[in-house]
Amino acid sequence: MEKNYLYFHDRFGGAEEHLHGVRRIIYEVRTPYQFIQVVESPTFGKMLIIDGDVQSSLVDEYIYHESLVHPALLTAHSPKVVVILGGGEGSTLREILKHKSVTKAIMVDIDKDATDIAKEYMKEWHQGAFDDQRATLINSDARAFVESNLSNNSVDVFISDLTEPYEGGPSYKLYSVEFYKTIFDRLKEDGVFVLQASLLRVTNYKMHTIIRNTLKQVFPIVRSYFAYVPAFDTTWGFIIASKKNDPKTFTKEDVDYMIKERITGDLRFYDGETHIALFNLPKDIRKLIETETEVITDLHYIPLERKENL
Amino acid sequence: MEKNYLYFHDRFGGAEEHLHGVRRIIYEVRTPYQFIQVVESPTFGKMLIIDGDVQSSLVDEYIYHESLVHPALLTAHSPKVVVILGGGEGSTLREILKHKSVTKAIMVDIDKDATDIAKEYMKEWHQGAFDDQRATLINSDARAFVESNLSNNSVDVFISDLTEPYEGGPSYKLYSVEFYKTIFDRLKEDGVFVLQASLLRVTNYKMHTIIRNTLKQVFPIVRSYFAYVPAFDTTWGFIIASKKNDPKTFTKEDVDYMIKERITGDLRFYDGETHIALFNLPKDIRKLIETETEVITDLHYIPLERKENL
Amino acid sequence: MEKNYLYFHDRFGGAEEHLHGVRRIIYEVRTPYQFIQVVESPTFGKMLIIDGDVQSSLVDEYIYHESLVHPALLTAHSPKVVVILGGGEGSTLREILKHKSVTKAIMVDIDKDATDIAKEYMKEWHQGAFDDQRATLINSDARAFVESNLSNNSVDVFISDLTEPYEGGPSYKLYSVEFYKTIFDRLKEDGVFVLQASLLRVTNYKMHTIIRNTLKQVFPIVRSYFAYVPAFDTTWGFIIASKKNDPKTFTKEDVDYMIKERITGDLRFYDGETHIALFNLPKDIRKLIETETEVITDLHYIPLERKENL
Amino acid sequence: MEKNYLYFHDRFGGAEEHLHGVRRIIYEVRTPYQFIQVVESPTFGKMLIIDGDVQSSLVDEYIYHESLVHPALLTAHSPKVVVILGGGEGSTLREILKHKSVTKAIMVDIDKDATDIAKEYMKEWHQGAFDDQRATLINSDARAFVESNLSNNSVDVFISDLTEPYEGGPSYKLYSVEFYKTIFDRLKEDGVFVLQASLLRVTNYKMHTIIRNTLKQVFPIVRSYFAYVPAFDTTWGFIIASKKNDPKTFTKEDVDYMIKERITGDLRFYDGETHIALFNLPKDIRKLIETETEVITDLHYIPLERKENL
Q1: Tens digit of each residue's pLDDT (9 = 90 or more) over C183-220
Q2: Where do the annotations place S-methyl-5'-thioadenosine binding (chains A, B, C, D) (predicted)?
Q3: D26 Cβ neighbours under 8 A, 6+ residues apart
Q4: Fewer CB in 10 Å around end: N or C, chain C?
């Protein structure tokens, strides 16, 4: 009976509001950093909601996490050391560990409660990844860790799987040009930095383009791409910032060959043809992302509202 | 003040409901065929809503209409006669008339009230297309017109821009294998049939795959593709069914060359790179669309609910 | 942060929908009889929801339960034996036990899960009433119990605290004229029957007036009254059907005197002045309730939709 | 088809939101003072909405307007001169003119657009009252008019039919103790002042109690009462402030006699029994309204949020 559902209201800017039916709340808690809810949706299965934003759903999280991980790891050619900033659910870790070359995957998430919840209530996401011998979970501030615990030229791939710095939240220091310079220095010479980079559609794109433009101050190669994630009701943006290699030059056949050689286990979303779809952008989006001039610095934050254009 | 908006509720299946703020209703009427509303949204500008479904918005209708028209007309090589089934707003007509080769564009829409509303209240959509000397508007039943008023081997491109046949509505006879056979016969030997083909995402795809499978009973080449339309909050599916040429074989450069040679006026969404993005589908969607076995016939309608999987 | 609430949608007929924010679900279960949710609202505190209908909230349940119990028990003069039909939360029982004359309060609720939930999660409602020596809880069908386990002329007050028989649900046999005749027979000569009797407002009244008219076939004195309950967003109807005494004849002073003599513990809503307010009805409501002609019988159920007029 | 409705969202405080289906917008305009919408609801018929708040609906406006006008005019015994502050729709005027003793009814509403809209689109409300020879409509600031254009001891009844001074809006100077003193002076010795006085229910009452306490600084007799108005989904408060007579002393018979002698035309809500219901308040509400200590002055406004307690 539909009438028994509760509804989660996902509030976009500009008078848009998306209601998702919820069968039940599986777990919820206010941690020192965020408000976390694990709920069950009749459409999307189990869903993770943080501070009122859908983070991922069981039905389609593979789209988001495969898009985030594989293009970057293939761009890095033979990545050994991978560092995740954030990444609570453990799915990003899961996808990284499918790459045979990886010897060390370090996940730095400030919120121990969040990763404990993932371990306990989101086993379908991490699928035991936290127990893999190559994996290390560190609950501390990601910027401090990168600055103090990593040496230059030591990391193959950084993956930023953080919530966005809306309304000047404290996470914005993980999006500044100063931090990106440190990331650049810690990367090896063919190193790659990939970020979840907010929603990207013609009515909402500003957060994406500002992150992109900030990265362009530091990295020679910066590629935006997006995938449609049903639980978000929108296309979602990602950015690869690379020191040397360019994922856009890969052919369908290149990608399919690399997947075959370098990845174990099945992928559901990503393959050669998907790669071509991801890295060829529609004309309107290409135009939008090229005109941005703002840069986030440690002292200059652009106060974007949640899911809203400037 | 946000609190003064009214809200349009776009009801998806499975307990999903999307609310779009509405500043005002510009016009609305119940015609003999449908309930039509032209409203103004703070996010999407003017919007056309038919029977509770968003049809198009001023902000992003170019995505839908360029995706529907240009790949098909380029696939046909040098189309002269183009027939639109439905197409109320006049935007499909507008895009067709950008092709220099077109000498005759016939639009057959059963609802005279709908096309009158488009002429009067949606000038930003049609931009005077109805007045072009090459255009003919006929308000009658599309199937009867195709069967009785067109001869075999006479049409270069058919464009189906109709609402979907949900819940066994009368439009389903425009989606049957028998009708598709008539379309096939009326087409010239390199003729192309393109359809708007319902929402296509991993949680909602059944209407698309049934239309696709029905077309495959008749046409040798059938290509699904999709574009994300923000006002729909979902990726939207299209299908090209072709007698001879295959749009998937075009390179980026092919498409950019054809656009330059054959199209006048600007395109905002479609170009060579967009074409590559459209016709390379993610792995999960490719898998979904290949497994369908249902076929719509004049006597066998599959009773799908609105925006719902079976 | 408001945006983290889930929302419960309370659907009235006629395109009315009331959204109540929910902080968390405290407990929920589908029993063999109904879907029960105990949630926490920022406005109303803990709330009980059954099959999508708000049953009571911590902030205002005293209005509903005092209105249901005290006018009836004062009308019966010196009630000893009181029988509750339904009454899940235990609040009706709690109020009955405030009357010094009561020696036996029997609560007959078919849903053991519901009363177990009340005992465990709704202690603020029952306040230990289930443990009172005068109280007996029986989990069985109320009609069968009244027919088989009670003798004629043995009960002072019956209290019907059941959900309404919408859409022909099985509870309608607790609303038929045949069952009301049995109730009449089981009552002592100054016995009283009081019912929660659905929402009563000028836009929604049909369920109330049909119950009332059915009672009028059996009882000589039938009095409708209503109280506004904020968590319901509407005035809620009750009916006293009496064999001999008429609560409308009581003065303010009568009621205040009886409360002082016969009731222990505090009342928050009901007193002499409240009684006068309850039993004097506005002209429009008086007119509405006098014109009903339908009667519910065991064989003739009137299929009302939820919270809807005919 | 329900799915074609737009919805008006009536936002209460504390995470409560009431959605009312809207068939169509009949008229809407932003005046210099407010945003006015006349819409058609399937449940409530034509509705007037100002700044996102339901003002009145065709189905139940008689409850509000009869409650506002008749108790006050009967309290004044033989009122000749009546002044309305605000009163846009013209229904308050309509009810006043039913009193045979009235020789002059002056309506002072600052918003000429609002009264023009009422004249044109809300004829079912005013029913021609604006054309009555005894009626005068003045579009100017009510406070300035009362201060400058009326002499002391000249008015029988003042009726305040204004929107509430939420969030420090400019109307708050029509709610200050200084203005109430002027009202007192302008009234004759048995004069009466009646106000619509915001929603009054146990979860939302602060605006009412502050207005009430402000009046108590000036008038010897102050009586709160309320009526349930379905389109508001809440009980609505009114206050009579009187120099000499007390409506609470009237019996049912007194009121019915006065109605018969002094009023022409039918009343649908108000009569003797209704009067008794209105002026006997439940115990919880009596307690709430007695404890207020705040007073609105010209220099001290209490910044209440819309429909929200402090």
Answers
A1: 999 999 999 999 999 999 999 999 999 999 999 999 99
A2: 34, 109, 141-142, 170
A3: D38, D39, D40, D46, D121
A4: N
Partners of residue A7 in chain C, C-beta under 8 Å: 6-9, 19
CA distance A64 to A162: 13
Which SS3 state, helix, strand or coil, does residue B146 take? helix
Q: How many residues does chain D have?
A: 310
- Taking every pair of Cα atoms in chain C, the longest distance, rounded to a whole number of angstroms, is 58
In a domain, B254, yes or no: yes
Co-location of D126 and D148 in the same domain: yes
Measuring CA to CA, which residue among C46, C52, C158, C48 is closest to residue C113?
C48
What sign results for the dihedral spanned by CA atoms D130, D136, D139, D145? Answer: negative
> Per residue in A104-162, pLDDT tens?
999 999 999 999 999 999 999 999 999 999 999 999 999 999 999 999 999 999 999 99
pTM here is 0.89
Binding-site annotation, residues of A for spermidine: 65, 89
Shared-domain flag, residues B19 and B104: no
* Residues A8, A65 within the same domain: no
Contact D160, D196 (CB under 8 A): yes
Number of domains in chain A: 2
Give the C-alpha separation, D211 to D238, whole Å: 10
Distance CA D194, CA D238 (A): 7
DSSP C205-271: -HHHHHHHHHHHTT-SEEEEEEEEEGGGTEEEEEEEEESS--GGG--HHHHHHHHHHHB-S--SS-S
Supply B76's token pair.
């046909």
Does the interface ipTM go beyond 0.90? yes
In whole angstroms, how far apart are CA C71 and each of A271, B95, B224, C66, C157?
Answer: 73, 74, 70, 8, 11
User: Shortest CB distance from B52 goes to which of D1, D9, D39?
Assistant: D1
- For residue C117, what is the domain's CATH number? 3.40.50.150
Q: Tell me the Ramachandran region of residue A51: left when phi exceeds 0, alpha when psi lies from -120 to 50, beta otherwise.
A: left
Strand order, beta sheet including B45-50: B24-30, B35-41, B45-50, B53-57
| Mutation for testing the A interface, residue in B1, B18, B24, B62 having most A CBs under 10 Å | B18
> Is A303 inside any structural domain?
no
The answer to whether residues B183 and B152 touch, using CB atoms and an 8 Å cutoff, is no
Of the candidates A3, A24, A52, which has its C-beta nearest C1's C-beta?
A: A52
Asked if C200 contacts C285 with a C-beta cutoff of 8 angstroms, the reply is yes
Residue at C276 is within a domain:
yes
- Do D246 and D193 share a structural domain? yes
Q: What is the pLDDT of residues B86-139, one digit of tens each?
A: 998 999 999 999 999 999 999 999 999 999 999 999 999 999 999 999 999 999
Judge if C10 and C106 occupy the same domain.
no
B190 and B102 housed in the same domain: yes
Residues of B noted as catalytic? 161
CA distance A21 to B15: 5
Please state, in angstroms and rounded to a whole number, the distance separating the CA atoms of residues B85 and B106: 9
> Looking at residue A11, which CATH number applies to its domain?
2.30.140.10
Q: And the tokens for B147?
A: 């069967």
State whether A14 and B284 contact (CB < 8 Å). Answer: no
Whole-angstrom Cα distance, residue A247 to residue A240?
8
Question: What is the SS3 assignment for B305?
Answer: coil
Pick among A200, A202, A306, A309 to test the B interface (most B CBs inside 10 A)? A202
- For residue B158, being part of any structural domain is answered with yes
Quick one: A239 and A252 in the same domain?
Answer: yes
CA-based torsion, D247, D249, D250, D252: positive or negative:
positive
For residues C51 and C110, membership in a common domain is answered with no
Range of the domain at B37: 2-55
Judge contact between C76 and C70, C-beta under 8 A: no
Tokens of C121: 């999660």
